[in-house]
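HOLO CASE FILE
Compound: alpha-D-glucopyranose
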Amino acid sequence: MNKKLFKSLLAVLLSSSIANASSLTTEVNSSNLKSNWWQNAIGYEVYIRSFSDSTGNGIGDLRGIEDKLDYLKALGVDFIWITPFYPSPDVDMGYDVSDYKNVDVKYGNLKDFEHLVQTAHHKGIKILVDMVFSHTSDQSPWFIAAKSAKNNPYHDYYVWESPTSTVGMPNNWQSWFSGPAWEYNQATNEYYLHIFAKQQPALNWKNPKVREELANTAKFWLDKGVDGIRFDVITLNALPDIKQSSDLWGRMPLARTYLESLNQQVLSKYNILTVGEMPGVDERNADQFVGSESGALKTVFQLDIMSLGNDGNKFHPTDYSLVEFKGIFQRWYDGLYGKGWSSAVLDNHDQARAVSRWGNDKQYWQPSAKMLATFLLSQWGVPYIYQGDEIGMTNAPLTVQDFKDVEEINYYNEQIKAGIPESVFLPGLIARGRDNARTPMQWNNSKNAGFTTADHAWLKVNPNYQTINVANEEKDPHSILNYYKQMIKVRKANPAFTYGTMQIINYNDENVYAFTREYQGKKFLIVCNFRGIQTNFDTGIPNLTKDKILIHNYSEKVNIVNGSINLKPFEAMIFQLK
Ligand code: GLC
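Model generated. Tokens follow.
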């Protein structure tokens, strides 16, 4: 059977079982909710390199974030997750850490960090830091020592294998950033494992000393008063045997045991939010990691939608099925609601921009960005706004010369080496490359979008900053930014969006994602047209009236006849039903 047909049959089958299952869920018990500050919080991801540069070196920094706290406060978010700011050679832009307990000079220093935490707390904004515990940089003193000799005390901090007599490499595992997952080390005549770039050697969590170092690192930052931790690809800490397939990365039961013990030793002593980026965890096993009974982490990033809209290779974009998209959110809800807590994201620093991917960044830029805000902020799970999405920042017209991301660069080189013409692979790479989301935040229409006073920002500024920028949008009452602010207020004022049950309406509709949220006698209907076409949607509620609309992304009136809504391209609205 062809892959597409199989996928759509599967989606229909799942959708009917999901529709039945979802009607069975009952409201979460609210008795112990108050102690968990994060359940009704709204998060905002700050990609530090590109947020705000206070020193004029072309790279964002901690003081830069502090300068923008009032902006974040006015937006209405409760906490920010700051991407890694530790010393790093930046092969993977900070996700290759060379010293876990310090601040890279390009971002400031420990005092700046402490000051930021203090000021943010004073303004009522909480801070999450990012812990990259599955690997370090190859410039970490641990690795430099480890690779020097087999009997070095740090050697066992990493994952080593001897060459096999026949092929050299211990097995055929491939890294996620192109090429083999093994790199040869002359001094010890061994290979070390790297799941990402070769400058990111994997840590050996089997070694209790490694686990202790990492637990101490978490404690170090928590003692500075941070309010939570985002754990980078944390399920990769437990590795399969080298005779097994790399499909098992992220799927080893030990991952949970390691996290439970980290939690018991350190995390559980603080009133914090923890969120794991957990490859291999899905709606069927998530409650083992984040269920209220589980004792590992508090929440998990739900990133499965990121594998939609391509043919299995992330740089080969295709159309995506909205029914499959719905299926992902619904399955996670069915798997976790009432048992644990999730998150909601539409993009992040590793993805193309949400409005370019799920919306339309040209003709319907504004309505589609607002539609996505309506959707994201009415979902179950802690929502995360990725920096710049609140002003509708789009993918950037980058060229190969502009690329800074190691994943893009490695993939480019690999394709060229394989003799594949640019015309075949480059458009997909440009459309889905991670640099799209990493271009500097667009604050105003001055040089470099007001991000830096340097001549050049570290990554090219998207030329559309002349029109898409914070200053413009603050002035315009109909801007995407002001819509976000309004939608945040709608979520905050109505606990149903945080705690309520969720039920999809007309599941098989390929254009419209409509669902209800209900909690303690209040019920809301959210209708989002995900396509750039006009479409008719039957809500099944004959007496539906426009009098009870809480938010709507078009200025023209909603067109309802006997419960059917004639939706404009990317039109979205929320009704209060009871
Ligand atoms: C995570 C990060 C990504 C990084 C990778 C390796 O997926 O979000 O930016 O490249 O881990 O650390």
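CASE NOTES: Confidence is low (pLDDT under 50) at residues 1-24, 30-34. Residues 229 and 274 are 5 Å apart (CA to CA).
CLOSED: yes
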